[in-house]
Each structure stands twice: as C-alpha cells, then as structure tokens.
Amino acid sequence: MRIIKMLLISLTMLYAVTASATLSTIGQKGMLQTITAENEGKGIIGIGGYGQYWQSSVDLLTLTSDYKRGIGNYFVSYVPYNVLEVFIAQAAGAYQQENPAERNVGVGDTYLGAKYTNKLRGFAQWGISSSIRMPTGEPEYGLGTTAFENTFLLSLDLSGYDITPFKLHFNIGYVKTGESEPETYEASDALIIRSAVVLPSRIFSPFIEYS
Predict the structure, then answer these.
(1) CA 186 from chain center: how many Å?
(2) Over its length of 211 residues, how does the chain's per-residue pLDDT go in tens digits?
C-alpha cells in the first residue's frame, strides 16, 4: 500500500511539472511573447522556452550562408498561491560566421519576476507582471544593460460561451532600461503592446499573436 501511495505521489509530481510545459518564455501558455492573466493553479511548476533564428542569404552554389545566429529563452515558474506566479529565465545563444571564420556559444541575460492575477468577471481575468532583466552573460545575446518591465494583463476566456471558442489576451506596459542609448534599439526604453487569440485545447492550442 505504501509503495502504491509513493507511486501516486511521484506521478502527481511528474504531472505537475509537465502539465504546464509550453513553447513560451515567462509565465505564458503556448505563446512567444504575450503574457496571460492566468495561472495553472497552486503548486504547479512550469517549464518552457522558445528560440529565434536568423541567417544571411543562402549561396545557391554552395547552399551555405555567411552568417547564422540563434537565441533561446528558457524558464522555470512556480505558483505558490493561486493568484501569484514567480519565475526565473535564462537566455542563451550561438552564432557562426564564415568570413572571417568565427564561432561563439554563450549565455545571455537572466530574468527574475512575478505575476499577480485575479478574476475580474466570470470570463475575464486581470493581472500585473513585473520583472528585472540583468546582463549576466555575453552582450551578443542580451541588452547589455539592466531593464525593468511592468505590464498590465487582461485575459478573456470566451471558450465556454456561444460567442466564440477563443481565448483573447492583451498586454500593455513599459520597459525602462538602466543605461539607454537612443541609437541602440535593443537598449532603449520601450512601450509594450501585445495581443493574442488562442483556440484552447488539451493537446495543441493554435494561436495568432501580435507583439
């Protein structure tokens, strides 16, 4: 009986870890940038990440490109209370250049933050997300300066109504950088406007996102 109980606890913990794994960065569910005003539930651990890739034009003779670059963001989040989610995220990247030959792999910025959410009405939730971004690695894979982000969140779950089967998410906020240079876009203050339309599903949730 004790072995069965331990097995059930282990399976429950495994489900808690995997149930909220997403293709996302910080506290989102199935999206690249937009943060939802929802939490998975108290005690849930979320793991996830997403990547971005660039390359120069491909030479049709050699079928190679002169320059390739990829950056990924990976996070772990935890919900200690139903209304609160905390997270830590790390950026990493790699690039390759043919002429002159050069390669590099390294870590980038580190994120720390929290998200507070609460119910507005039966189908609506609101929240606030705050995070600090710190240059803890290679400058090629980050802002190169500290940045603070505060974002207001709104989520509308219309999937239980006859109006539409979709979920709608909206973000508006501001990023304040520690050492801003006007000529450097990545290290400048920024207004945040994000939105997403999601068709919720237990297995795969397609979405359209604007950020």
Answers:
(1) 18
(2) 544 444 444 433 333 333 333 333 444 566 778 889 988 788 888 887 777 777 777 777 766 678 788 888 888 889 999 999 999 999 888 888 877 888 888 888 899 999 999 998 788 999 999 999 998 888 777 777 889 999 999 999 988 776 678 899 999 999 998 865 555 555 678 899 999 998 887 777 788 888 8
The pTM for the full model equals 0.73
Strand order in the sheet with 84-97: 45-55, 67-81, 84-97, 102-119, 124-134, 147-157, 167-177, 190-198, 207-210
C-alpha–C-alpha distance, residues 28 and 38, integer Å: 8
For residue 141, which of 20, 44, 52 has the smallest C-alpha distance? 52
Residue 37's nearest CA partner among 157, 140, 135, 166 is: 157
